[in-house]
């Protein structure tokens, strides 16, 4: 049932919006992992980010793709919670509680064990439109003892103009989705953060919607 | 519905003939030199099939369908323009209003209200958008932003909507109908690009504007100009109400303005330091890359025709 809801939501609502209202300058599609366990790490500007990334997947694989999302936001009321679980299939993360790292990411590990593909925004919440903010170390805690998991960086640009934080009006804009090559294994959290950051900056130069002023 | 005037039908068949020829040539090339990579050529020709297929289908189905298609092309072009140029985050809502001009403008086309069609964007939207910007209250970057937004709407909505209005003109050449005019304009504009390219490749020595477009040469430009004027002279009486002489002039107009449209969009891309304006049409780039010449040829051809024949 969840699987059907998710497919319907994407086929009838998300895809038409992504194709008609938005528009993608897509590069590096061949780098997108279609098999799990793997993690897609992307920069985060808009609620559209996860939807756009998920719309890149064929409908038949959609149930394998799970965005990692903040529990305090996406589960804050009954309706949003139902929607987040059934139409998006999120993996909730408790940002506020003081949990141990192993507990915090238990959901992610289970999903990876099932061969699923996580979508993760290592910057945490949506930052200012089209600005990179500090990358958090959470992703390191997920991958550091999992040699089976690929980490694929994606740089997106333009969605923060289409639907920035705190706005409800969607204005049509094209956006860049640049998918990079797998990020190499890192020894420490800092190292991983550095290489994610480096690949974001590297991919950013292929964005063609990048010329905007403040 | 489904009634195609004979001359327009012949023109469509000729265009399909050209597409078949192009596809055949590519297959032969691939057979002769299997080691070379023809991906871009393949994509380019494939995209032509799609573009021409969709266009002809819409023209055949009904006039309204064709007008909706052109409205949609304007929307895609405006969106692409806004996506590549710098716009202020504060102006999101102004841009939204700019998008709303598309249904209004094309509605005016569809009811054939010429008087308002011709001034709605250059007068009313021109005055409305800065007013809406004032309400936002951000004055930093005001001039630049107002200029960019209005220019974008003029190029992608106002100019392109003239193609759609060709369908609303009273029919003076019953053998070709309104769609004859559209096919003539689109074909001559695209053919001009091809001719200038080919003449430039064959004879090109003297660059016209090396800073903007290093491949544009006087030889290509003049070769294209003469070829297009001649072809247009013979094709005009067939597809438009113009006689040989006036068709020849129409060809000159299309060739010169097509060149200008091309280099204007090139300058925009140079300024932004990008190669293509998007990746909507495989092998061609974005929609602006494909419509660049058309932005200039359509209003100029339209008003020339309007003055001469109506």
From TrEMBL, chain A:
<comment type="pathway">
    <text>Lipid metabolism.</text>
</comment>
<dbReference type="GO" id="GO:0003841">
    <property type="term" value="F:1-acylglycerol-3-phosphate O-acyltransferase activity"/>
</dbReference>
<keyword id="KW-0812">Transmembrane</keyword>
<feature type="domain" description="Phospholipid/glycerol acyltransferase">
    <location>
        <begin position="38"/>
        <end position="159"/>
    </location>
</feature>
<dbReference type="InterPro" id="IPR002123">
    <property type="entry name" value="Plipid/glycerol_acylTrfase"/>
</dbReference>
<protein>
    <submittedName>
        <fullName>1-acyl-sn-glycerol-3-phosphate acyltransferase</fullName>
    </submittedName>
</protein>
<dbReference type="Pfam" id="PF01553">
    <property type="entry name" value="Acyltransferase"/>
</dbReference>
<keyword id="KW-1133">Transmembrane helix</keyword>
<dbReference type="GO" id="GO:0006654">
    <property type="term" value="P:phosphatidic acid biosynthetic process"/>
</dbReference>
<feature type="transmembrane region" description="Helical">
    <location>
        <begin position="7"/>
        <end position="26"/>
    </location>
</feature>
<keyword id="KW-0012">Acyltransferase</keyword>
<keyword id="KW-0808">Transferase</keyword>
<keyword id="KW-0472">Membrane</keyword>
Automatic annotation (TrEMBL), chain B:
<dbReference type="GO" id="GO:0009273">
    <property type="term" value="P:peptidoglycan-based cell wall biogenesis"/>
</dbReference>
<keyword id="KW-1133">Transmembrane helix</keyword>
<protein>
    <submittedName>
        <fullName>Phosphatidate cytidylyltransferase</fullName>
    </submittedName>
</protein>
<keyword id="KW-0472">Membrane</keyword>
<keyword id="KW-0808">Transferase</keyword>
<keyword id="KW-0548">Nucleotidyltransferase</keyword>
<dbReference type="GO" id="GO:0016779">
    <property type="term" value="F:nucleotidyltransferase activity"/>
</dbReference>
<feature type="transmembrane region" description="Helical">
    <location>
        <begin position="148"/>
        <end position="167"/>
    </location>
</feature>
<dbReference type="Pfam" id="PF01148">
    <property type="entry name" value="CTP_transf_1"/>
</dbReference>
<dbReference type="GO" id="GO:0005886">
    <property type="term" value="C:plasma membrane"/>
</dbReference>
<feature type="transmembrane region" description="Helical">
    <location>
        <begin position="179"/>
        <end position="199"/>
    </location>
</feature>
<feature type="transmembrane region" description="Helical">
    <location>
        <begin position="6"/>
        <end position="29"/>
    </location>
</feature>
<feature type="transmembrane region" description="Helical">
    <location>
        <begin position="49"/>
        <end position="78"/>
    </location>
</feature>
<feature type="transmembrane region" description="Helical">
    <location>
        <begin position="246"/>
        <end position="265"/>
    </location>
</feature>
<keyword id="KW-0812">Transmembrane</keyword>
<feature type="transmembrane region" description="Helical">
    <location>
        <begin position="220"/>
        <end position="240"/>
    </location>
</feature>
<feature type="transmembrane region" description="Helical">
    <location>
        <begin position="104"/>
        <end position="127"/>
    </location>
</feature>
């Amino acid at each position: 049932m969840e699987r059907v809801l998710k497919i319907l939501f994407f086929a009838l609502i998300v895809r038409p919006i992504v194709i008609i209202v938005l528009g993608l300058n897509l590069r590096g599609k061949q780098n997108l992992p279609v098999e799990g366990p793997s993690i897609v790490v992307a920069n985060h500007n808009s609620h559209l980010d996860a939807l756009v990334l998920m719309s890149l997947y064929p409908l038949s694989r959609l149930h394998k793709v799970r965005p990692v999302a903040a529990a305090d936001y996406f589960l804050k009321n009954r309706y949003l919670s139902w929607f987040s679980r059934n139409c998006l299939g999120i993996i909730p993360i408790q940002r506020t509680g003081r949990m141990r790292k192993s507990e915090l990411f238990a959901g992610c590990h289970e999903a990876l064990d099932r061969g699923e593909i996580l979508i993760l925004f290592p910057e945490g919440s949506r930052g200012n439109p089209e600005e990179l903010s500090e990358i958090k170390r959470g992703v390191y805690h997920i991958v550091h003892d999992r040699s089976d998991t690929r980490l694929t960086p994606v740089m997106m640009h333009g969605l923060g103009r289409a639907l920035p934080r705190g706005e409800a009006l969607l204005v049509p804009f094209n956006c860049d989705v640049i998918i990079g090559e797998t990020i190499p294994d890192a020894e420490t959290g800092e190292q991983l953060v550095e290489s994610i950051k480096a690949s974001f900056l590297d991919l950013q130069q292929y964005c063609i919607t990048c010329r905007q002023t403040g | 519905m489904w009634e195609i005037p004979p001359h327009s039908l012949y023109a469509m068949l000729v265009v399909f003939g050209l597409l078949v020829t192009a596809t055949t040539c590519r297959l032969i090339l691939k057979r002769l030199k299997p080691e070379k990579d023809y991906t871009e050529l393949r994509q380019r020709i494939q995209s032509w099939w799609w573009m021409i297929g969709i266009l002809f289908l819409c023209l055949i189905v009904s006039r309204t369908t064709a007008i909706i298609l052109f409205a949609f092309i304007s929307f895609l072009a405006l969106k692409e323009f806004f996506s590549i140029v710098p716009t202020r985050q504060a102006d999101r809502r102004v841009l939204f209003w700019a998008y709303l001009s598309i249904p209004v403008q094309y509605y005016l086309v569809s009811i054939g209200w010429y008087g308002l069609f011709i001034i709605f964007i250059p007068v009313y939207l021109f005055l409305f958008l800065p007013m809406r910007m004032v309400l936002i209250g951000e004055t930093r970057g005001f001039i630049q932003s107002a200029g960019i937004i209005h220019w974008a709407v003029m190029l992608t909505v106002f100019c392109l909507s003239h193609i759609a209005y060709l369908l609303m003109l009273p029919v003076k050449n019953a053998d070709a109908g309104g769609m004859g005019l559209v096919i003539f304009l689109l074909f001559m504009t695209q053919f001009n690009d091809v001719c200038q390219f080919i003449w430039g490749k064959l004879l090109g020595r003297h660059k016209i504007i090396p800073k903007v477009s290093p491949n544009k040469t006087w030889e290509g430009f003049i070769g294209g100009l003469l070829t297009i004027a001649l072809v247009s002279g013979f094709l005009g009486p067939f597809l438009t109400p113009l006689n040989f002489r006036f068709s020849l002039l129409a060809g000159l107009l299309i060739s010169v303005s097509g060149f200008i449209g091309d280099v204007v969009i090139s300058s925009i891309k140079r300024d932004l330091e990008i190669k293509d304006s998007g990746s909507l049409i495989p092998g061609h780039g974005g929609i602006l890359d494909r419509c660049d010449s058309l932005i200039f040829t359509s209003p100029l051809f339209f008003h020339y025709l309007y003055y001469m024949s109506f």
